[in-house]
Amino acid sequence: MRKLILLTLFAFIVQLYGQLPNGSRSLIFTQTARTFEKGRLEVHSNMNFFTKVTDFVGQGTKPLDFSAVNYWLVNGNLAITYGITDHFDFTVAPQIYQDTHAENEYNLPGDIFLLFKAGSFAFGDRHMYGSGLIGVRLPTGEEHNYPFTEYASGAVEYGIGSALSYYKDQYLPDRSLNAHLNLNWWNHNEAGRVVYKTSTFESKATKNSSELQVGLAAVYPTQLFDYRMELNGVFYLNEPDEFVYSRESWMYLTPSLRYNALSWMSLDFGVSVRVSPDEETTNVSAAVGREEQDLPNYAAWKAQIGLNFKILPFTVSHQTSAEVQRDEFKKRVDFFQQIVEDREKSAQIQEELDKLKEERETAEKELEELKQILQEEGE
Q: Looking at residue 323, what is its pLDDT?
């Protein structure tokens, strides 16, 4: 009952806040190359926020009627991931974007993201994993192309990507030092759409912009806390039009902490700091007021908060205590059997290496004898 109440409260909270989706075994921004096993269901959330007071920018003195403005950026996202097979999972993520500084002040609902991921392909003696991803953004939100955050064109956006993961311990990967690399291509698909508009003015995109998304992360897990560091950014391959707020490439460094409060619940805390230059290349029409022209394109920092739940699998209620213990014992037997098999393979490899070493030594002796014979004949 307590779990149900917490889940209900969580579902309400993430409808007020959120951010871009991340799927199975995720960090805040970076995908891992491992997928959920069949039947596994988890719910992830993230809320990040930023605030800035804008002041007069320009030559001369402030106008008599000038007043500073307090701008807020609050992003929220709910990501639900389900393992379809042991190598394929699916994520659906409805996004809420709060306070777009437009007339309606917020998107409710925001855009919806769909992520298809094929992964958990092990190699390198199961220290390494690879995966491939396909993502789609459905423009169900009312407002797009807003300041302080990543570019949203208002079109059906799509992309493909890959993830590579390294785990120090191949037997207990989630409990060992691990690192992850992401490379994604994303198309904003906005040509011909109205991307910028006011009550008296609008501009259509003249081209499709595309970008390379890069992510790099490291995780040091402990029993209670996971210590994490992420570096993620976007590099435009084809820049958006000049009237797009977020038309510059960007990069953020995000140290974070995951608190494993319960076996089925964890909390994330972190802060993202922009490490890319504070560039401003947006050139909006003169019909737009000075106040909007002077807005920076990306937040200098973002506070990160997340709440995650493991929903499935759960213990079936009609199982007896003995049956549960039997299943757990079987899992442990299978685990140690895998260790024994891997050690046997390692022993076979070592035997082959020893044989090769003996053959090399024999060949070296024969070569030395041949050299002596040739020297004697030469004398």
A: 60
Q: Which residues contact 374 (CB under 8 A, 6 or more apart)?
A: none
The secondary element (H helix, E strand) that includes residue 374 is: helix 321-378
Q: How far is CA 37 from the centre of its chain?
A: 19
More confident residue, 379 or 132: 132
Which residues contact residue 181 at a Cβ distance below 8 angstroms, ignoring those fewer than 6 apart?
163, 164, 165, 215, 216
Torsion sign across C-alpha atoms 197, 145, 109, 71: negative
Under the banding of pLDDT at 50, 70 and 90, the label for residue 19 is very low
Contact 53, 90 (CB under 8 A): no
Residue, of 33 and 331, whose pLDDT is higher? 33
> What b/e string do you get for 249-282 counting C-beta neighbours within 10 Å, with b at 16 or more?
bbbbbbebebeeeeeebbebebebebeeeeeeeb
Q: What is the H or E stretch that residue 340 is in?
A: helix 321-378
Residue 66 has pLDDT above 70, yes or no: no
Give the C-alpha separation, 165 to 218, whole Å.
Answer: 10
CB 249 within 8 A of CB 233: yes
Please, how many CA atoms are within 13 Å of residue 57, restricted to the half-sphere of its CB? 12
Alpha-carbon distance values, 187 to 11, 89, 239, 240, 292 (Å): 30, 23, 11, 11, 26
Q: Which two tokens stand for residue 333?
A: 């037997």
Beta strand residue intervals within the chain, DSSP E: 41-54, 69-85, 88-98, 106-107, 112-123, 128-138, 157-167, 178-187, 194-197, 202-204, 210-221, 225-238, 250-262, 265-274, 301-312
Amino acid (1-letter code) at residue 329: F
Task: Give dist(CA 43, CA 20) in Å, integer.
Answer: 14
**Which range scores top for mean pLDDT: 52-66, 253-267, 272-286?**
253-267
Cα gap 26→256, rounded to integer Å? 13
